[in-house]
TrEMBL record:
Enzyme class: oxidoreductase
MF (Gene Ontology): 4 iron, 4 sulfur cluster binding; 4-hydroxy-3-methylbut-2-en-1-yl diphosphate synthase activity (ferredoxin); 4-hydroxy-3-methylbut-2-enyl-diphosphate synthase activity (flavodoxin); iron ion binding
Cofactor: how bound: Binds 1 [4Fe-4S] cluster.
Official protein name in the record: 4-hydroxy-3-methylbut-2-en-1-yl diphosphate synthase (flavodoxin)
Cofactor(s) listed: [4Fe-4S] cluster
Species this chain originates from: Sinorhizobium alkalisoli
Listed pathway(s): Isoprenoid biosynthesis; isopentenyl diphosphate biosynthesis via DXP pathway; isopentenyl diphosphate from 1-deoxy-D-xylulose 5-phosphate: step 5/6
Gene: ispG
EC number: 1.17.7.3
Lineage: Bacteria, Pseudomonadati, Pseudomonadota, Alphaproteobacteria, Hyphomicrobiales
Superkingdom of this protein's organism: Bacteria
The IspG TIM-barrel domain, residue ranges: 17-286
């Protein structure tokens, strides 16, 4: 018989820990948050600015595109500029087709990067003699860098797919075309990892990913990978989409996998809206880990949804402002006040649940709803500490929150 216990998160799947420029991925380390720039890497100023923004937002690893000589030449300059800004953020080079050549021709790039991402779909892996694959693995060994073998079904190895399709047909088609595709993705990652190890790359230098764009496919593919290897796994739904759809699809798939103990680092790939903020994907990744109780990044701001009892938008605006202020202050607070991320702030719309929720928070306010006295009780550490009145309730509460955190 099932019990409530069955719904608890499963223990983390045992995986081999990989050191990526000082950030440990796998081996039970906290699930790392990562993201990727969308600047032209050859544009050093723009790339430094975006990596810095992603790092400040909380991205623990940042991937950059290395697609040609100009971008490879820019990588050491980007790394140097970031270090001068005090940002020792591990940079991951995203290579396709000619990564082996770029790494060989640009040793400073090979050195500056903390990890190389390679795609078995476009550097061959058919046998050990495959030059491109062997060369990139040799570079990783020479510079003592880990690699991520990142399969993506948009660039899946067609030869392997055809072979598995033919094998399936010869066996009387026990698998559907969708199942064969999933199997191809998984095998592509596993065969490449095996070859990398045969070439001499240690197991603790290999991370695997297998990105697809469908939620059910992603869950199936990672469940298969997790059961057939102990490599650290990078999770991400590719082409997740824009806005709400991308956030929901990524959260649904990654949330289910992490609940099963699968996943050592995550990236939420959101298509940026025109002029949109690239750091949003970092915020979504952090929030996903935080709401599931796996990591704590920022103090929680609990706010009620509001209803007909709320007379104005004051409380929604206050909750939003408080959340934005806290997030903006976190880079400084994190260093100054260790443990600050465990705090809880409540902003509630009326007396029904306001005082109760506020008492459960470290600091909370219950704003006056329809027909209530225009007064807002504030609770600190579970006790009513004061009542705010007048037109400046929001500003005064914001100051109280800052004071509380600083104390
Ligand atoms: Fe509505 Fe009050 Fe509940 Fe907020 S706390 S949702 S305003 S009843």
């Amino acid at each position: 018989m099932s019990s409530a216990f069955d719904f608890e998160p499963k223990p983390r799947r045992a995986s081999v820990a990989v050191d990526v420029g000082g950030v440990i991925v796998g081996g039970g380390a906290p699930v790392a948050v990562q993201s990727m720039t969308n600047t032209d890497t050859a544009d050093v100023d723009a790339t430094v600015a975006q990596v810095a923004a992603l790092y400040r937002a909380g991205s623990e690893l940042v991937r950059i595109t290395v697609d040609r000589d100009e971008s490879a030449a820019a990588v050491p300059k980007i790394r140097e500029r970031l270090l001068r800004l005090g940002m020792d953020v591990p940079l991951v080079g995203d290579f396709h087709y000619i990564g082996h050549k770029l790494l060989a021709d640009h040793p400073a790039c090979a050195e500056a990067l903390a990890k190389y991402r390679i795609n078995p779909g476009n550097v061959g892996f058919k046998d050990k003699k495959d030059k491109q694959f062997a060369e990139i693995i040799e570079m990783a060994m020479r510079y003592d860098k880990p690699v991520r073998i990142g399969v993506n079904w948009g660039s899946l190895d067609q030869e392997l797919l055809t072979r598995l399709m033919d094998d399936n047909k010869a066996d009387g088609s026990p698998m559907t075309a969708q199942q064969v595709t999933r199997e191809t993705i998984v095998q592509s990652a596993l065969i490449s990892a095996e070859l990398a190890e045969e070439l001499g790359l240690p197991r603790n230098r290999i991370i695997l990913s297998a990105k697809v764009s469908g939620v059910q496919d992603l869950i199936a593919v990672y469940a298969m990978l997790a059961s057939r290897s102990d490599h650290a796994l990078h999770l991400g739904l590719t082409e997740a989409g824009m806005g709400t759809k991308g956030i929901v699809a990524s959260s649904a798939s990654l949330g289910i996998l992490m609940q099963q103990g699968i996943g050592d680092t995550i990236r939420i790939s959101l298509t940026p809206e025109p002029g949109g903020d690239r750091t949003r994907e970092v915020q979504v990744a952090q929030e996903l880990l935080q709401v599931m109780g796996f990591r704590q990044f920022v103090p929680v701001v609990a706010a009620c949804p509001g209803c007909g009892r709320t007379t104005s938008t004051v409380f929604q605006e206050l909750a939003q402002k408080i959340e934005e202020d806290i997030r903006a202050s976190m880079p400084v607070w994190r260093e100054k006040y260790p443990g600050v991320e465990a705090l809880k702030v409540a902003v509630m719309g009326c007396i029904v649940n306001g005082p109760g929720e506020s008492k459960h928070a470290d600091i909370g306010i219950s704003l006056p709803g329809t027909g209530e006295t225009p007064a807002a009780p504030v609770f600190v550490d579970g006790q009513k500490a004061m009542t705010l009145r007048g037109p400046k309730i929001a500003e005064e509460f914001q100051l109280l929150v800052s004071d509380y955190i600083e104390k």
